């Protein structure tokens, strides 16, 4: 797979609902830098991002210092993968479908697919 094809795969995931399944750091906790809030750095590790290395979560609304404000979270591939794997592993504890039959759970499948797509 070419590098541009790999990035196109991430763009496909970003357009879907899979990224919405990942918990993002709390904006109001005051732990994010201005670069992380504006999308210039990964929201988890603070690594500087470029258009090619960033996975964009889209514009969000959150509370920052008591004021509702827009923010633009983005993540690096390793952190997005780690968040997807963690969410995938923790999901069954809160999902009735996973208790009954995890192979039928759309959320669990989407999280696994996301983790696989961003591993490169």
Approximately how much helix is present in the residues?
Answer: 40-55%
Low-confidence stretches: 1-15
> How many domain units?
1
User: What can be said about the biggest beta sheet?
Assistant: 2 strands, antiparallel
Strand order of the largest sheet: 1-4
Rg from alpha-carbon coordinates: 15 Å
On the 0 to 100 scale, the average pLDDT is 85
Series of secondary-structure elements, N-terminal to C-terminal = HHEEEEHHH
**Structural class given helices, strands, pairing?**
alpha+beta
Task: Give a topology summary.
Layout: H1 3-15, H2 34-38, E1 55-56, E2 60-64, E3 67-71, E4 74-75, H3 77-90, H4 96-100, H5 106-117
Antiparallel strand pairs: 1-4, 2-3
Helix pairs in contact: 3-5
List keywords for this structure.
120 residues; alpha+beta; two-stranded antiparallel sheet; 5 helices; disordered N terminus
Tell me about this structure.
The protein is of the alpha+beta class and 120 residues long. The chain has one domain (3-117). It contains five helices and four strands; from the N terminus they run ααββββααα. Helix 3 (77-90) runs antiparallel to helix 5. The protein is globular.
């Amino acid at each position: 797979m070419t590098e541009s094809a790999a990035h196109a795969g991430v763009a496909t995931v970003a357009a879907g609902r899979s990224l919405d399944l990942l918990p993002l750091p709390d904006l109001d906790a005051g732990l994010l830098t201005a670069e992380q809030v504006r999308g210039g750095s990964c929201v988890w590790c603070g690594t500087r991002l470029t258009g090619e290395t960033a996975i964009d979560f889209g514009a969000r609304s959150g509370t920052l210092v008591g004021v509702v404000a827009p923010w633009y979270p983005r993540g690096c591939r390793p952190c997005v993968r780690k968040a997807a794997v963690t969410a995938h592993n923790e999901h069954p504890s809160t999902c009735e479908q996973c208790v009954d039959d995890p192979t039928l759970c759309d959320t669990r499948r989407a999280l696994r697919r996301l983790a696989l797509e961003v591993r490169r």
